[in-house]
Design goal:
Blueprint: H1 8-12, H2 22-47, H3 55-83
Helix pairs in contact: 2-3
Length: about 90
């Protein structure tokens, strides 16, 4: 008879060093507006997968695309602003 061995120990046995660091959590927090805007864009696109997009769907996708782009621009501007020492332009 063959015994079935559980892999729970391998799956759930995480060492403390495998947790995200504070720097990684801060980076995720800074990118959260971009992530949420991308999720909204995907939601708007998913709605139109099984049918032709209506005028309202097209507006929703355009708005979501603009919000995603604006969130990315804001993230890049924040990163560029913090990486320039002494306020040099």
């Amino acid at each position: 008879m063959n015994h079935i061995v559980t892999v729970q120990d391998a799956v759930t046995a995480f060492a403390p060093w495998m947790e995200p660091t504070d720097a990684e959590l801060d980076a995720i927090e800074q990118e959260m507006p971009v992530i949420l805007a991308d999720v909204d864009l995907l939601d708007a696109q998913i709605v139109t997968l099984d049918r032709p997009p209506s005028e309202l769907d097209e507006r929703r996708i355009r708005r979501a695309r603009r919000r995603a782009l604006a969130a990315r621009v804001a993230l890049v501007n924040r990163a560029a602003g913090t990486s320039l020492p002494g306020g040099a332009a």
